[in-house]
Batch of 2 targets.
Target 1
Amino acid sequence: MNGVCAPGFDRLLDFMETGWQGDGTEIIYGVWPDFRLAYFNEGWMRFARENGGAPWLMSPECLGRSALDVATPELRPFYRELFTRAITTVTARPYSISHEYECSSAEVYRKFAMLLFRLEGGQGLLIANSLVVEMPHAVRGTVPVEPSADSAPYHNEHALIVQCAACRRIRHQQLEGRWDWIPAWVRQPPERTSHGLCDLCMSYYYPSKK
Ligand SMILES: [Zn+2]
């Protein structure tokens, strides 16, 4: 087992030595029943480093923080519900719940699968994330948009740009329901950017709220 582990959590992970083992590329973390981080592996640190994560994400300081703090505020209620379901659901499978999500960069579309393993007696969760799809955006038919110098159609009445917290598309303020893929703003969001969820992500994460 590689990575950083809180005292007492390692004994819950014994099954990793004998039972389930990843292929070494997964991003894996563990949480206590209150969802504070108790473990993260080298894959977690590598991903944080390669994607410009905050330094605390790569240090033992991370332990004890809520794993929900790593999610954007728009997605926290979803992950709180997912983690709660996973820790309270006992199944015959080794993992109790799975979930797929997009985590793209400006350059590539990426989809990850998350498996949530309920640890012995519900004493915690082990959460493994593996890349299932990675391809250039163009291969999916996504047409990138270059914003004009004044960014006009993307400013709302408060002069804010609204980015989807999940897929990172930008809301077009003049065409209802349109969200554009603007790689330059994924790389570096404009200063006055707020967050929301586009219609597709809203129906994926919160189907009952549609
Ligand atoms: Zn979206």
Target 2
Amino acid sequence: MFRSLLLMLLWSPAVMAMGPVCKSLFYVPQRVGIVDAYSSGRHVAPALNKYGIETVHVQSEKEIADPYFASTFDPSNFKTNVINSIGDIVGLVRRLIREKVELIIPGAESGVLLADELAHGVGTRGNPIETSSARRNKFDMSERLRSLGIDSVKQIKSDNWERTRIWIENHGKWPIVLKPVQGMGGNGNHVANNMKEAERAFKKLIGFRDSEGRILTEVLVQEFLGNLTYDSEYVVNTVSFMGIHVVTDVWRYHKYKVEGEGVIYSWDELLPSRGELQEKLIAYNHKVLDALEFRNGASHMEIMMTERGPILIENNARLSGASGARLTELTIGKSAVDWLVESIVGTAGFINRAKHRYKLKKEGLIVFIRTPEPGTMDSKLFDKVKSLSSFAEWVPYHKDGERVEKTVDSDTLVAEILLTNKDQEQLHRDLAQILKIQEEKGFLQY
Ligand SMILES: Nc1ncnc2c1ncn2[C@@H]1O[C@H](COP(=O)(O)OP(=O)(O)O)[C@@H](O)[C@H]1O
Ligand SMILES: [Mg+2]
């Protein structure tokens, strides 16, 4: 009913005349709408503004529920902020047409579905609306891969513990993973080692309010992929234009399992773009992007290397978060943000430039500082790492004097430290030094 109303509206001659539909696919938009320009998505508007392209912000929720997202929003980068206060998609589409928006992209994870709907409604370049949920919903994305004959994670999605328990018994292997179907930032992720832990996690997740403010009614339960040292996860970040994918950065993640909770970041290692492993990951990444009909925009894909080969953890239809883009600026000289902006302003030569594979001028990694118990932030305690020869920058997650809770997810991390060095051995010696200080609880006042 709603969709047919939308279709009627969009096909009405008046709206067609007003709208920026039917342009050449290579058009350079003069005004771009960014849905939820938070986290790393906040860097896109200022970069577009430098090219004289105006930006309009679309806020997917009346109030920005996620405190981290709210803290990264800068309305001054935008001509206007259009707030989706009552979920009136038709109204939003009309407003964006009136604003002469010619391209709509998501900034952060919370904007992915709405950006698809609005791009479809306004008629701009984007990704097919029919497969939208396979680019956001973790259950749908892996089921879509399976239906196309691509190996994917074994899983069940359920609101019923008894049904879930039977699935887990039949699966017969521990550990297993329980998580929200549309989670982000590691919120609500659990690794369970036995049925008691699984039941507790399941019951905790039902009714759990996720970071976008949704109350969960179903839990996603998956086989555990990878190894128990939590260092077999990789990331391939890409920017796509008309189905051509450019690899902007490839990473190996080293994670850490918090007792009774999920896994969190420990350190992320930037990899060269070429190598036997990279070729496998990139080939798999492109196969998955095509299966998910991901044709335009930035993507951040998490892949587990397993005995069966690479298997998708999740694809995020947006830029990678944290300081990844910054580290690539320091080590490669060009980030996914730069590539995304190029895919918007330099469309004509993009396909040719897309043959490019990046080269590392320096090695680089990001260390995520965690705490096993609550403490108080004191930035002076980080002075001791600033003299390390690989030290580049650091990003505190809290203000001085603030209480920091035990780290259980991305929101409760203490800080990020960016290291770069031409000498890989020195880089790893400096990493070891930081991990030792962390082990000795040297980064917070306790
Ligand atoms: N099925 C799985 N097997 C092994 N590890 C998993 C699995 N699902 C999630 N994880 C781990 O938990 C992390 C967070 O899960 P993910 O689904 O990416 O949630 P989020 O949206 O919060 O990032 C992953 O990056 C991975 O390290
Ligand atoms: Mg993830």
